[in-house]
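Incident review: delayed structure delivery

Summary: a single-chain prediction request sat in the queue longer than the usual turnaround. Root cause was a stuck worker, restarted by the on-call engineer. No data loss occurred. The affected request and its eventual output are reproduced below so the record is complete for anyone auditing the incident later.

Affected input:
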Amino acid sequence: MIKKGFLTAICALMIGFCGHVYADDAEIILDGSTSSSGFSVINSGSVTVMRAGGDTNVSVTGTITADSFVGDGSGLTGVVGGSGDGYSLDASDGTPENAVSVDADGNVGIGETAPLSALHVKNTDTSAAPHSKADELVLENITDAGLTLLSDNAGAGHIYFGDVGSSSVGRITYTHASTDAMEFFTNGSERMRIDSNGNIRIGNPGYSFALAVKGGVNGSGASGAFYAEDYSDVAGSFQRNGTNGDVVHLRKGSTVVGSISVADSSTTYNTTSDQRLKTNIIDLTEALDTVNKLQPRRFDWKVNNQSDIGLIAQEVLAVYPQAVSVPEDPKEMMMVDYSKFSTILIGAVKELLSENDSLRKTLNAENSALKAENRAIKATLTTFASELAVIKANQQQIDKKSVKIAKISN
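Output delivered after worker restart:
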C-alpha cells in the first residue's frame, strides 16, 4: 500500500503543475487552478477528476478494469467484457442480472444472455429457434409474442421493405387518420386494402364490397382479376341465404349486363336484354335455314377420350358467327356460346309454325272443295238413284206388258 505521506511528497514536487496539494485522513487532493478542477483520491477508493465548471470528466488512455459501473452508463464508450466473450448489464436495481447482454459477435439480448439474432428480446424461453432468413430480430415469449407500433390518432404505423433500388419497394401501413385502413404495397404501389368495415379491396378498385378485386388497368397488367383452383374439390362457392334472387352480378364497366340467380332448388342464368339498350330492331329471318346448316356431331375429347355430342366451333363460325368466340391469339381455343342457339331455334320453330299454318290453310281449303264436290256427287247420285228407280218401274211395266202380248200371240 502506498502511504499517504509518500503521495503527498510526490504531489509536492508537482505543485508547479497541479497547483495545491491537500491531504488528510479522508482524501488526497491535487487542486488545479480553481476549487472545482483537479484530481482527488478519496479514502473510500473512488477517483474523481474535476474540470473547470465542476462537472466530472474522466479521460484515460489505456484500459479501465472494474467489477461494475455505478450510474446509467450514458457516458461510457468502448466498454468490452473482461472475459472477451461479451458484456452484460444488470437492471438499475440489480434485478434481474444480465438484463442486457452483448455477445462476442455483437448480438444484443434483452432478457437473453445468448441472443439468437442481432436483437433478441425475450420474456420467457420457448426453446424455439428463428428461421435463418428472418433472424435479425427475435421477439420471444412462452405464450403470446408480438410487436406494437404506437402513433397518434392522426398518424399512421408503417413497416417498410427496401433494397438498393428503393427504400420503400414494399410497405404495410395502418392509417389512423380518417380511414382506419390497413394498406399493403408492392413495387411502390398499393395492391390491397382492408377498410374500417372489414371489406377487402385488391388492386384498389373504386367500389366497396366484402371482397372487391381489380385486375389489370385498360387491358394491361394481370391476365385476370380472380382465379380459383382446387385439385379434387369445389374451387369456389357463391351462396345466398334468405330470399331467392341474384347471387352473382356480371358487369361491363359499372353496368350490370348479366346475373346468376338462385331459388330454392334451381339456378337461372340471365343476360341483359332490355329494349332500351337496343336499336335497329328487326325480325330474324332464315332461322330454319341456319339450323339446317348446323351440323351436330358425335366426338371424343382428346384430353380423356370421353365421348360427347355437340358442335364444332369452326363449322359454326361459317354458319352462325354470333355464337362463336374467336380469341386474338390463334393458339387459344375457339369457344361456342350454346345459349345463342335459343334465339335461332325460336326463329326456326316460328318459321315451321308459319309454314305449318300455311299448309293447314291450303289443306283446309282443298278439303272444303273436296267436301263440296262430294256433296255435289252425292246429290247427283241421289238424282241418278231416283231416275234409276223410275227406269226400273218403267221396265217392270214394260216387262208385264211384254208377257201379256206374248200370251195373246200364242
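Verification: The helical segments are 4-13, 15-18, 287-293, 313-319, 341-409.
Action items: add queue-age alerting; document worker restart procedure.
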